[in-house]
């Protein structure tokens, strides 16, 4: 059994901060589950272009307001508490935060926690982190 708190992640190497986001990586590849779980804050007024070519990402919004845009089609969906969106076809997307957005994210395959976005907004394939 794994039991972990958000507080135990804060201030560690699993707590990654960028200009537009803060990712608290609660479960990672080393936990051996096949997926990773992240509690992420996207900062108000920011826009991120992301495209996870090597991972499927499921996102569940628990706080805040914003929108997600499919780059290829331009289709836009509002985001707010209780909304889930899944990048099941590795879609390039824009994530816009009108207010701070708090999102629970699940990545398959699991992230190691050491990944950094490349120029396309992707994380490297597993084993290439």
UniProtKB/TrEMBL annotation:
Q: List the catalysed reactions.
A: (2S)-4-acetamido-2-aminobutanoate = L-ectoine + H2O
Q: Which residues form a coiled coil?
A: none
Pathway the protein takes part in: Amine and polyamine biosynthesis; ectoine biosynthesis; L-ectoine from L-aspartate 4-semialdehyde: step 3/3
| Top-level EC class as recorded in UniProt | lyase
What are the recorded Gene Ontology BP terms? ectoine biosynthetic process
User: Keywords of this protein's UniProt record, alphabetized?
Assistant: Lyase
**What Pfam families does the record tag this protein with?**
Ectoine_synth (PF06339)
Q: Which GO terms describe its molecular function?
A: ectoine synthase activity
Q: What is its EC number?
A: 4.2.1.108
Read off the InterPro entries from this record: Ectoine_synth, RmlC-like_jellyroll, RmlC_Cupin_sf
Quote the function comment for this protein.
Answer: Catalyzes the circularization of gamma-N-acetyl-alpha,gamma-diaminobutyric acid (ADABA) to ectoine (1,4,5,6-tetrahydro-2-methyl-4-pyrimidine carboxylic acid), which is an excellent osmoprotectant.
Task: Tell me the NCBIfam families matching this sequence.
Answer: PRK13290.1
* Entries under PANTHER family matching the protein: L-ECTOINE SYNTHASE (PTHR39289:SF1), PTHR39289
Q: What family is this protein classified in?
A: Belongs to the ectoine synthase family.
Record-given protein name:
L-ectoine synthase
Q: Which organism is it from?
A: Tabrizicola oligotrophica
């Amino acid at each position: 059994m794994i039991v972990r708190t958000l507080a135990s992640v804060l201030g560690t190497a699993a707590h990654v901060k960028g200009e537009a986001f803060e990712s608290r990586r609660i479960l990672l590849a080393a936990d051996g589950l096949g997926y990773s779980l992240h509690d992420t804050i996207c900062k108000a007024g920011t826009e991120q272009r992301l495209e996870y070519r090597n991972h499927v990402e499921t996102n569940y919004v628990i706080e805040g307001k914003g929108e997600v845009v499919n780059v290829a089609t331009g289709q836009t969906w509002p985001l707010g508490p209780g909304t889930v969106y899944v990048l099941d076809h590795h879609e390039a997307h824009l994530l816009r935060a009108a207010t701070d957005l708090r999102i629970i994210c699940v990545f398959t395959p699991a992230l190691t926690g050491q990944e950094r976005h490349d120029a396309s907004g992707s994380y490297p394939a597993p084993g290439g982190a």
